[in-house]
């Protein structure tokens, strides 16, 4: 759940309107109130998801914007202008949220003040992908971040907020269960958070690797392959190289916890062995994995 206790965060407010016609079960996010004259038409949330937030310019006019992967609790709210309400310009909406973010200690990561100057990744936009007066910002430091993207649609009749509270996926399986799963299936899927397009392991995934190291320590005869896997976003060649680098990075992290290096091998499989449908974000998230395969 999103819980903001700092007074600076609590001060991020825009004028709040009556909510009697909001979509059933929907409410404003704790981080922001709404623009005047708007009602919530849609909302959704998931306990853990991956979204790619636009953080830089497109390589060419109208191309895909540079993005940053953020995993954690996900929230989405769409606002529609009430009939007869005064319509703000898309720029006005964007600047309102940016000013509120700055007052709350947030950082403006990127802004796109125009119509379709860049495209957003499909994890955020199910439509044509054009960014229409959108802005990305984040709050907090490394290890405790909240990311948000606000975008206007049409001529200002609606806007949307995507928000992720960055965190590591909860490790639900303990050492004993890891051993049982390895004996039963011959492999274990690990979902490690890496920096975007990098083999650098994020700090919030170290607890998972500690559990893996304890598994090896509990059985001195255990040997395994560390296999890196990706989804099909990007080229096959770049995905192959990335999977190899990530496999080596995970192997090194396990060895760092006291496991002998000769008990492990690293291999990259790129996008060649999906375990789920790459046409959906849920499927792609499952395919971005590191597998521990018993030898």
Provide a quick synopsis of the model.
With 295 residues, the chain is of the alpha+beta class. It has helices at 7-10, 90-103, 175-185, 206-218, 236-256, 281-287, and strands at residues 38-58, 65-81, 107-119, 130-139, 146-153, 158-166, 187-190, 224-229, 264-268, 289-294.
List the helices and strands and how they pair.
Blueprint: H1 7-10, E1 38-58, E2 65-81, H2 90-103, E3 107-119, E4 130-139, E5 146-153, E6 158-166, H3 175-185, E7 187-190, H4 206-218, E8 224-229, H5 236-256, E9 264-268, H6 281-287, E10 289-294
Parallel strand pairs: 8-9
Antiparallel strand pairs: 1-2, 2-6, 3-4, 4-5, 5-6, 7-10, 8-10
Helix pairs in contact: 3-4, 4-5
Describe this structure in words.
- It contains 6 helices and 10 strands; from the N terminus they run H-E-E-H-E-E-E-E-H-E-H-E-H-E-H-E.
- The strands form 2 sheets. The chain has a 6-stranded antiparallel sheet with strand order 1-2-6-5-4-3. Strands 7-10-8-9 form a 4-stranded mixed sheet.
- Helix 3 packs across helix 4.
- The chain is elongated.
- The protein has 2 domains: 160 residues, no CATH class; 120 residues, 2-Layer Sandwich (60s Ribosomal Protein L30, Chain: A), CATH 3.30.1330.
- It is of the alpha+beta class and 295 residues long.
- A hairpin with a 6-residue loop joins strand 1 and strand 2.
- The longest helix is centred in the last third of the chain and has 21 residues.
- The two termini are 40 Å apart.
């Amino acid at each position: 759940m999103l819980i903001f206790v700092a007074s600076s965060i609590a001060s991020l407010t825009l004028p709040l309107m009556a909510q009697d016609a909001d979509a059933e079960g929907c409410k404003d996010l704790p981080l922001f109130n709404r623009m005047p004259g708007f009602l919530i038409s849609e909302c959704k949330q998931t306990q853990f998801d991956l979204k790619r937030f636009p953080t830089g310019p497109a390589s060419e006019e109208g191309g895909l914007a540079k993005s940053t992967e953020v995993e954690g609790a996900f929230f989405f709210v769409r606002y529609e202008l009430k009939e007869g309400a005064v319509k703000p310009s898309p720029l006005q909406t964007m600047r309102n949220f940016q000013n509120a973010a700055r007052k709350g200690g947030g950082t403006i990561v990127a802004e796109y003040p125009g119509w379709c100057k860049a495209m957003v990744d499909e994890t955020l936009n199910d439509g044509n992908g054009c960014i229409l007066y959108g802005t990305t910002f984040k709050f907090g430091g490394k290890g405790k971040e909240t990311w948000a993207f606000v975008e206007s649609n049409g001529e200002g009749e609606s806007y949307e907020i995507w928000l992720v509270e960055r965190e590591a996926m909860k490790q639900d399986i303990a050492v004993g269960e890891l051993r049982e799963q390895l004996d039963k299936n011959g492999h274990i899927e690990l979902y490690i958070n890496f920096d975007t397009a990098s083999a650098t392991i994020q700090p919030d995934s170290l607890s998972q690797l500690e559990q893996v190291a304890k598994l090896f320590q509990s059985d001195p005869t255990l040997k395994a392959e560390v296999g890196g896997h990706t989804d099909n976003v990007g080229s096959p060649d770049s995905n192959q190289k990335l999977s190899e680098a990530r496999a080596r990075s995970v192997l090194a992290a396990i060895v760092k916890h006291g496991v002998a290096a000769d008990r492990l091998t690293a291999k990259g499989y790129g996008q060649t062995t999906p375990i789920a449908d790459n046409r959906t974000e849920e499927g792609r998230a499952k395919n971005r994995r590191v597998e521990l395969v018993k030898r």
